[in-house]
Amino acid sequence: MRRDVLDLRAFYATPLGRAARVMLARKVEEAWGDTRGLDVLGLGYATPFLEPASRRARRVVAAMPATQGVEVWPLGDRNQACLVEETALPLPNAMFDRVLAVHALEEADDPGALLAEIGRVMAPTGRLIVAVASRDGAWAGAETTPFGHGRPFSRSQLERLIRDAELEPAGWTRALYVPPMTFAAGWAEGFEQVGARLWPRFAGVILMEAVKQTFAVKPRGHRARVRVFTPGVLAPSPVGPAAVRAVPSRKATTMEPCGSHLEPSQSKPSLGS
Predict the structure, then answer these.
(1) How far apart are CA 53 and CA 48, in angstroms?
(2) Which backbone phi and psi does 252 adopt, to 5 degrees?
C-alpha cells in the first residue's frame, strides 16, 4: 500500500525533508541540464524535485498514482497534477522528453509494468531518471521517511528491472548520505560531500538514468510468383559456329556450305540472244 499524499507532503515540509529535496533535485538538474522547450513528466511523488524544470520546460505534468492520492501543484498557479492508474497512464505514446520517477517503484504492485508504461509515453530520444531507496543505506530502514516504506533496491536489481522493461540504463549515481535524523539536517551538505568520498555504498538513494531502446526497422522481403514459360518440345537452336559443334550429324563429311550440293539450273536464253 502506498503512502498517502498528505504524509509525503508533511515529510518534505520538515527540515530533513527539505534537505532531501535539495540533494535529489541537484542530482536531477545535473543530469538533465536545461529543459527549455521539453515536455517533462513526474511520476509518483516527484513534485518537490520538479521546480527547476517547471520554470523552463514547455510542459510539466505531475502524475500521481490513485492509491497514493493527488494534490494541487504548483500552489497559486494553474494546476499541473493529475490522478492516474500507474500501469495505464492516460497519456499519448512517445510524448515526454524527460521522465522523473520518485516514490514510484518501491510501493508499486508491479514495478515492471510501471516501467513499461513509462517507456510507452517516453519519446524515442527521451530520458528517464528513477530514484529509489538503496538497500544498503540507512534510509531504507527509516520508517519515519517515505524511503523507509516498500521495497528497496540494489544497483544491480534496479538495472535488471529497467532492462526487463526494454529500457537501457545509461548512468547512475547516489545521494542522501546524511543520516535520516532531524538533528542532522543542518549538516546535510557536509555529509553529502564527505560521504560520497568515504562511504559511497551507504547512500540513502540510488538514482539511475535510462534511455529508450530504438531498433532499426528493416523491410521484410515477400515472395512473388513469376510465370516462366518453359516449352516442352521446342528447344533453342544454336546459331553461328557453335551450331557445327552442337548439332550432331550422321557423317561429318556431309557438312558442307549451303548450296554446294545443288545442281546448276539450266539457263534460259535471254532476250535478244
Answers:
(1) 11
(2) -65, -25
In the 3-class helix/strand/coil scheme, how is 211-254 assigned residue by residue?
EECCCCCCCCCCCCCCCCCCCCCCCCCCCCCHHHHHCCCCCHHH
Question: How deeply is 217 buried, as exposed, middle or buried, from its count of CB atoms within 10 A (0-12, 13-18, 19+)?
Answer: exposed
Decide if 262 is inside a domain: no
Residue 169 lies in domain: 5-212
Q: Which residue has the higher pLDDT, 226 or 122?
A: 122
Domain harbouring 26, CATH code: 3.40.50.150
Number of domains in the chain: 1
In what helix (H) or strand (E) does residue 212 lie, and over which residues does it extend?
Answer: strand 205-212
* pLDDT band with cut points at 50, 70 and 90 for residue 75: confident
Tell me if 196 is assigned to some domain: yes
What is the crossing angle of helices 155-164 and 111-121, to 10°? 60
Q: Give the global pTM.
A: 0.77
Is the residue at 258 inside a domain?
no
Q: How many CA atoms lie within 13 A of 141 on its CB side?
A: 7
